Amino acid sequence: MAYTEEKAFELVKSAYERERLGHAFLITGEALAGGERLASKMIELINGVEDATAGLELFGDAPDPEPQSIDELEGDLVRVVRPEMKSRRISVKQMRELEKAMYQASEKDKWKVGVVLEADRMGVEAENAFLKTLEEPPDRCLLLLITSSPDRLLPTILSRCVQLPLITHAKREEYDGEIELLEVLGKIGKVGFGSVGRALTLKAAFSKVLERRKSEIAKANDAAQKEEITTYKQTTEGDWLKQRENYYKALTESEYLLERAQFLDVLITWLGDVVRQKCGVTELDYPKYASITKSVAEAESLESLLQRMESLEKLGSLLETNVSEPLALEVGFMKAFG
Protein backbone atom coordinates (compact mmCIF):
# COMPACT_ATOMS: atom_id res chain seq x y z
CA MET A 1 0.00 0.00 0.00
CA ALA A 2 1.42 3.38 -1.00
CA TYR A 3 1.07 6.49 1.16
CA THR A 4 1.21 10.19 0.46
CA GLU A 5 4.05 11.95 2.27
CA GLU A 6 1.61 13.53 4.71
CA LYS A 7 -0.12 10.26 5.57
CA ALA A 8 3.18 8.41 5.99
CA PHE A 9 4.35 11.07 8.45
CA GLU A 10 1.10 10.83 10.41
CA LEU A 11 1.63 7.08 10.81
CA VAL A 12 5.27 7.52 11.83
CA LYS A 13 4.35 10.25 14.32
CA SER A 14 1.66 8.06 15.87
CA ALA A 15 4.13 5.17 16.27
CA TYR A 16 6.70 7.51 17.84
CA GLU A 17 4.21 8.96 20.30
CA ARG A 18 3.26 5.41 21.35
CA GLU A 19 6.99 4.56 21.70
CA ARG A 20 6.69 1.93 18.97
CA LEU A 21 8.86 3.54 16.32
CA GLY A 22 10.89 1.08 14.29
CA HIS A 23 14.67 1.49 14.06
CA ALA A 24 14.96 1.19 10.26
CA PHE A 25 12.73 2.50 7.47
CA LEU A 26 12.94 2.01 3.72
CA ILE A 27 11.34 5.02 2.03
CA THR A 28 10.59 4.35 -1.62
CA GLY A 29 8.89 6.09 -4.53
CA GLU A 30 9.75 8.62 -7.22
CA ALA A 31 11.52 11.83 -6.25
CA LEU A 32 8.35 13.94 -6.47
CA ALA A 33 6.68 11.77 -3.82
CA GLY A 34 8.80 13.46 -1.14
CA GLY A 35 11.11 10.77 0.27
CA GLU A 36 13.84 13.15 1.45
CA ARG A 37 11.27 15.58 2.80
CA LEU A 38 9.63 12.78 4.80
CA ALA A 39 13.04 11.76 6.17
CA SER A 40 13.66 15.37 7.25
CA LYS A 41 10.32 15.48 9.05
CA MET A 42 11.10 12.23 10.85
CA ILE A 43 14.47 13.55 12.00
CA GLU A 44 12.93 16.79 13.26
CA LEU A 45 10.21 14.78 15.01
CA ILE A 46 12.58 12.68 17.12
CA ASN A 47 15.26 15.29 17.76
CA GLY A 48 13.13 18.42 17.88
CA VAL A 49 13.62 21.53 15.81
CA GLU A 50 13.53 25.23 16.55
CA ASP A 51 10.23 26.62 15.29
CA ALA A 52 10.94 29.61 13.10
CA THR A 53 7.24 30.57 13.25
CA ALA A 54 7.17 30.82 17.05
CA GLY A 55 5.40 33.99 18.13
CA LEU A 56 3.60 34.50 14.81
CA GLU A 57 0.38 33.21 16.36
CA LEU A 58 0.11 36.60 18.05
CA PHE A 59 -0.74 38.01 14.63
CA GLY A 60 -3.01 35.19 13.46
CA ASP A 61 -2.58 31.55 12.54
CA ALA A 62 1.08 30.60 12.19
CA PRO A 63 1.98 28.63 9.05
CA ASP A 64 3.34 25.11 9.40
CA PRO A 65 7.16 25.39 9.48
CA GLU A 66 8.98 24.00 6.48
CA PRO A 67 11.29 21.09 7.37
CA GLN A 68 14.98 21.61 6.90
CA SER A 69 16.63 19.75 4.05
CA ILE A 70 18.75 16.65 4.62
CA ASP A 71 21.83 18.75 3.81
CA GLU A 72 20.88 21.30 6.48
CA LEU A 73 20.27 18.60 9.08
CA GLU A 74 23.54 16.77 8.42
CA GLY A 75 25.97 17.01 11.32
CA ASP A 76 27.04 15.17 14.47
CA LEU A 77 23.61 13.66 15.03
CA VAL A 78 22.70 13.05 11.40
CA ARG A 79 25.10 11.23 9.09
CA VAL A 80 24.27 11.06 5.39
CA VAL A 81 25.67 8.57 2.89
CA ARG A 82 25.48 9.34 -0.83
CA PRO A 83 26.84 7.62 -3.95
CA GLU A 84 30.42 8.61 -4.64
CA MET A 85 30.80 11.15 -7.44
CA LYS A 86 32.95 9.17 -9.88
CA SER A 87 31.61 5.66 -9.58
CA ARG A 88 28.07 6.62 -8.48
CA ARG A 89 28.36 3.74 -6.02
CA ILE A 90 28.15 3.58 -2.22
CA SER A 91 31.27 1.87 -0.96
CA VAL A 92 31.87 -0.58 1.88
CA LYS A 93 34.08 2.07 3.48
CA GLN A 94 31.19 4.54 3.57
CA MET A 95 28.92 2.02 5.27
CA ARG A 96 31.61 1.12 7.81
CA GLU A 97 32.02 4.80 8.63
CA LEU A 98 28.24 5.16 9.03
CA GLU A 99 28.16 2.16 11.35
CA LYS A 100 30.93 3.64 13.47
CA ALA A 101 29.10 6.99 13.68
CA MET A 102 25.92 5.30 14.91
CA TYR A 103 27.80 3.86 17.90
CA GLN A 104 29.33 7.17 18.94
CA ALA A 105 27.92 8.93 22.01
CA SER A 106 25.30 11.61 21.42
CA GLU A 107 23.62 14.35 23.40
CA LYS A 108 21.18 13.28 26.09
CA ASP A 109 17.70 12.47 24.75
CA LYS A 110 18.89 12.84 21.14
CA TRP A 111 18.87 10.21 18.42
CA LYS A 112 21.69 9.25 16.10
CA VAL A 113 20.31 9.11 12.56
CA GLY A 114 21.84 7.49 9.50
CA VAL A 115 20.41 8.43 6.09
CA VAL A 116 21.35 6.47 2.98
CA LEU A 117 20.36 8.33 -0.19
CA GLU A 118 19.95 6.28 -3.38
CA ALA A 119 20.31 3.17 -1.24
CA ASP A 120 20.07 0.92 -4.30
CA ARG A 121 23.58 2.13 -5.23
CA MET A 122 25.15 0.21 -2.33
CA GLY A 123 25.84 -3.05 -4.12
CA VAL A 124 26.07 -6.46 -2.47
CA GLU A 125 29.31 -5.85 -0.55
CA ALA A 126 28.18 -2.56 0.96
CA GLU A 127 24.75 -4.00 1.79
CA ASN A 128 26.32 -6.94 3.61
CA ALA A 129 28.55 -4.53 5.51
CA PHE A 130 25.41 -2.70 6.63
CA LEU A 131 23.48 -5.77 7.78
CA LYS A 132 24.97 -5.92 11.28
CA THR A 133 23.85 -2.38 12.02
CA LEU A 134 20.36 -3.15 10.72
CA GLU A 135 20.16 -6.31 12.81
CA GLU A 136 21.59 -4.94 16.06
CA PRO A 137 21.28 -1.15 16.08
CA PRO A 138 22.42 0.78 19.15
CA ASP A 139 19.86 2.48 21.39
CA ARG A 140 18.22 5.65 20.08
CA CYS A 141 19.39 4.99 16.55
CA LEU A 142 17.24 5.56 13.44
CA LEU A 143 18.24 4.35 9.99
CA LEU A 144 16.53 5.78 6.91
CA LEU A 145 17.13 4.26 3.48
CA ILE A 146 15.74 6.21 0.52
CA THR A 147 15.49 4.84 -3.01
CA SER A 148 13.27 4.79 -6.08
CA SER A 149 14.49 1.27 -6.96
CA PRO A 150 13.96 -0.99 -3.94
CA ASP A 151 13.97 -4.06 -6.19
CA ARG A 152 17.75 -3.67 -6.49
CA LEU A 153 18.27 -4.21 -2.77
CA LEU A 154 18.99 -7.60 -1.21
CA PRO A 155 16.00 -9.39 0.37
CA THR A 156 17.89 -9.36 3.67
CA ILE A 157 17.93 -5.56 3.58
CA LEU A 158 14.26 -5.31 2.66
CA SER A 159 13.20 -7.69 5.41
CA ARG A 160 14.92 -5.65 8.13
CA CYS A 161 13.19 -2.36 7.35
CA VAL A 162 9.68 -1.04 7.81
CA GLN A 163 8.76 -0.10 4.25
CA LEU A 164 7.09 3.22 3.46
CA PRO A 165 6.25 3.33 -0.26
CA LEU A 166 5.27 6.88 -1.22
CA ILE A 167 3.05 8.19 -3.98
CA THR A 168 2.22 11.70 -5.15
CA HIS A 169 -1.26 13.13 -4.72
CA ALA A 170 -1.60 13.28 -8.51
CA LYS A 171 -0.98 9.56 -8.89
CA ARG A 172 -2.92 8.50 -5.82
CA GLU A 173 -5.09 5.53 -6.79
CA GLU A 174 -7.41 3.28 -4.85
CA TYR A 175 -5.62 0.22 -3.52
CA ASP A 176 -6.69 -3.29 -2.76
CA GLY A 177 -9.22 -3.26 0.06
CA GLU A 178 -9.93 0.46 -0.22
CA ILE A 179 -12.24 -0.13 -3.20
CA GLU A 180 -14.19 -2.74 -1.22
CA LEU A 181 -14.72 -0.33 1.67
CA LEU A 182 -15.73 2.52 -0.61
CA GLU A 183 -18.25 0.34 -2.42
CA VAL A 184 -19.84 -0.81 0.85
CA LEU A 185 -19.92 2.78 2.10
CA GLY A 186 -21.60 3.81 -1.13
CA LYS A 187 -24.27 1.10 -0.96
CA ILE A 188 -25.11 1.83 2.67
CA GLY A 189 -24.86 5.58 2.15
CA LYS A 190 -27.54 5.42 -0.53
CA VAL A 191 -30.10 4.01 1.90
CA GLY A 192 -28.83 5.95 4.90
CA PHE A 193 -26.89 5.36 8.11
CA GLY A 194 -28.42 5.05 11.56
CA SER A 195 -29.10 1.31 11.49
CA VAL A 196 -27.54 -1.38 13.67
CA GLY A 197 -27.56 -3.83 10.78
CA ARG A 198 -25.86 -1.42 8.39
CA ALA A 199 -23.24 -0.50 10.98
CA LEU A 200 -22.42 -4.16 11.52
CA THR A 201 -22.30 -4.74 7.75
CA LEU A 202 -19.67 -2.01 7.47
CA LYS A 203 -17.77 -3.45 10.40
CA ALA A 204 -17.80 -6.91 8.79
CA ALA A 205 -16.43 -5.50 5.50
CA PHE A 206 -13.71 -3.63 7.40
CA SER A 207 -12.72 -6.72 9.39
CA LYS A 208 -12.62 -8.84 6.22
CA VAL A 209 -10.19 -6.43 4.55
CA LEU A 210 -8.01 -6.32 7.67
CA GLU A 211 -7.88 -10.09 8.01
CA ARG A 212 -6.87 -10.56 4.38
CA ARG A 213 -4.12 -7.94 4.56
CA LYS A 214 -2.80 -9.37 7.84
CA SER A 215 -2.61 -12.81 6.23
CA GLU A 216 -0.77 -11.40 3.20
CA ILE A 217 1.72 -9.52 5.38
CA ALA A 218 2.38 -12.60 7.54
CA LYS A 219 2.83 -14.78 4.46
CA ALA A 220 5.42 -12.41 2.95
CA ASN A 221 7.38 -12.14 6.19
CA ASP A 222 7.24 -15.91 6.77
CA ALA A 223 8.75 -16.42 3.33
CA ALA A 224 11.54 -13.95 4.11
CA GLN A 225 12.25 -15.67 7.44
CA LYS A 226 12.41 -19.11 5.82
CA GLU A 227 14.86 -17.77 3.27
CA GLU A 228 17.09 -16.51 6.08
CA ILE A 229 16.93 -19.85 7.87
CA THR A 230 17.93 -21.69 4.69
CA THR A 231 20.81 -19.27 4.07
CA TYR A 232 22.22 -18.87 7.57
CA LYS A 233 21.27 -21.87 9.71
CA GLN A 234 24.64 -23.55 9.13
CA THR A 235 26.67 -20.43 9.85
CA THR A 236 25.02 -18.94 12.93
CA GLU A 237 25.42 -19.70 16.60
CA GLY A 238 23.35 -19.28 19.74
CA ASP A 239 19.83 -17.90 19.61
CA TRP A 240 20.23 -15.76 16.48
CA LEU A 241 17.50 -17.57 14.55
CA LYS A 242 15.15 -17.22 17.53
CA GLN A 243 15.87 -13.50 17.59
CA ARG A 244 15.05 -13.31 13.89
CA GLU A 245 11.77 -15.12 14.53
CA ASN A 246 10.86 -12.51 17.15
CA TYR A 247 11.94 -9.77 14.77
CA TYR A 248 9.62 -10.98 12.02
CA LYS A 249 6.71 -11.27 14.46
CA ALA A 250 7.25 -7.65 15.49
CA LEU A 251 7.64 -6.56 11.86
CA THR A 252 4.37 -8.27 10.88
CA GLU A 253 2.55 -6.57 13.75
CA SER A 254 4.04 -3.17 12.89
CA GLU A 255 3.10 -3.41 9.21
CA TYR A 256 -0.40 -4.59 10.10
CA LEU A 257 -0.97 -1.65 12.45
CA LEU A 258 0.08 0.76 9.71
CA GLU A 259 -2.40 -0.81 7.31
CA ARG A 260 -5.20 -0.80 9.88
CA ALA A 261 -4.70 2.90 10.49
CA GLN A 262 -4.70 3.53 6.74
CA PHE A 263 -7.98 1.69 6.18
CA LEU A 264 -9.61 3.54 9.07
CA ASP A 265 -8.44 6.75 7.44
CA VAL A 266 -10.32 5.70 4.28
CA LEU A 267 -13.60 5.85 6.22
CA ILE A 268 -12.75 9.19 7.80
CA THR A 269 -11.68 10.66 4.46
CA TRP A 270 -14.88 9.49 2.76
CA LEU A 271 -16.96 11.13 5.49
CA GLY A 272 -14.78 14.20 5.05
CA ASP A 273 -15.92 14.34 1.43
CA VAL A 274 -19.54 14.20 2.64
CA VAL A 275 -18.86 17.15 4.96
CA ARG A 276 -17.24 19.07 2.09
CA GLN A 277 -20.29 18.43 -0.06
CA LYS A 278 -22.49 19.63 2.79
CA CYS A 279 -20.48 22.85 2.97
CA GLY A 280 -20.40 23.37 -0.80
CA VAL A 281 -16.70 22.53 -1.28
CA THR A 282 -16.06 21.01 -4.72
CA GLU A 283 -12.55 19.59 -4.27
CA LEU A 284 -12.86 16.02 -2.97
CA ASP A 285 -10.48 13.20 -2.05
CA TYR A 286 -12.74 10.68 -3.81
CA PRO A 287 -14.24 12.55 -6.78
CA LYS A 288 -15.41 9.27 -8.38
CA TYR A 289 -17.92 8.92 -5.55
CA ALA A 290 -19.13 12.52 -5.65
CA SER A 291 -22.73 11.65 -6.50
CA ILE A 292 -22.99 9.27 -3.55
CA THR A 293 -21.32 11.56 -1.03
CA LYS A 294 -23.56 14.38 -2.22
CA SER A 295 -26.71 12.33 -1.62
CA VAL A 296 -25.47 11.42 1.88
CA ALA A 297 -24.73 15.10 2.54
CA GLU A 298 -28.29 16.01 1.61
CA ALA A 299 -29.73 13.36 3.94
CA GLU A 300 -27.51 14.00 6.99
CA SER A 301 -27.13 17.05 9.19
CA LEU A 302 -23.69 18.59 9.55
CA GLU A 303 -23.78 17.86 13.28
CA SER A 304 -24.39 14.13 12.76
CA LEU A 305 -21.64 13.90 10.13
CA LEU A 306 -19.11 15.53 12.44
CA GLN A 307 -20.16 13.20 15.25
CA ARG A 308 -19.63 10.18 12.99
CA MET A 309 -16.14 11.38 12.06
CA GLU A 310 -15.33 12.05 15.72
CA SER A 311 -16.44 8.51 16.63
CA LEU A 312 -14.06 7.03 14.04
CA GLU A 313 -11.20 9.20 15.25
CA LYS A 314 -11.85 8.03 18.82
CA LEU A 315 -11.88 4.45 17.54
CA GLY A 316 -8.45 5.02 16.01
CA SER A 317 -7.11 6.28 19.33
CA LEU A 318 -8.69 3.37 21.19
CA LEU A 319 -7.11 0.83 18.83
CA GLU A 320 -3.69 2.19 19.78
CA THR A 321 -4.20 0.83 23.30
CA ASN A 322 -4.31 -2.80 24.42
CA VAL A 323 -8.07 -3.03 23.88
CA SER A 324 -9.57 -6.08 22.17
CA GLU A 325 -9.64 -5.23 18.47
CA PRO A 326 -12.92 -7.06 17.58
CA LEU A 327 -14.75 -5.48 20.51
CA ALA A 328 -13.37 -2.01 19.80
CA LEU A 329 -14.37 -2.27 16.13
CA GLU A 330 -17.90 -3.40 16.94
CA VAL A 331 -18.49 -0.63 19.47
CA GLY A 332 -16.76 1.97 17.31
CA PHE A 333 -18.74 1.16 14.16
CA MET A 334 -21.99 1.14 16.13
CA LYS A 335 -21.26 4.64 17.43
CA ALA A 336 -20.10 5.92 14.05
CA PHE A 337 -22.76 4.42 11.79
CA GLY A 338 -25.50 3.02 14.04
Automatic annotation (TrEMBL):
Record InterPro entries: DNA_Rep/Repair_Clamp_Loader, P-loop_NTPase
Gene3D superfamilies named among the record's database cross-references: P-loop containing nucleotide triphosphate hydrolases (3.40.50.300)
Entry-linked Pfam families: DNA_pol3_delta2 (PF13177)
PANTHER family in alphabetical order: DNA POLYMERASE III SUBUNIT DELTA, REPLICATION FACTOR C / DNA POLYMERASE III GAMMA-TAU SUBUNIT
Name the UniProt record assigns to this protein: DNA-directed DNA polymerase
Native source organism of the sequence: Rubritalea spongiae
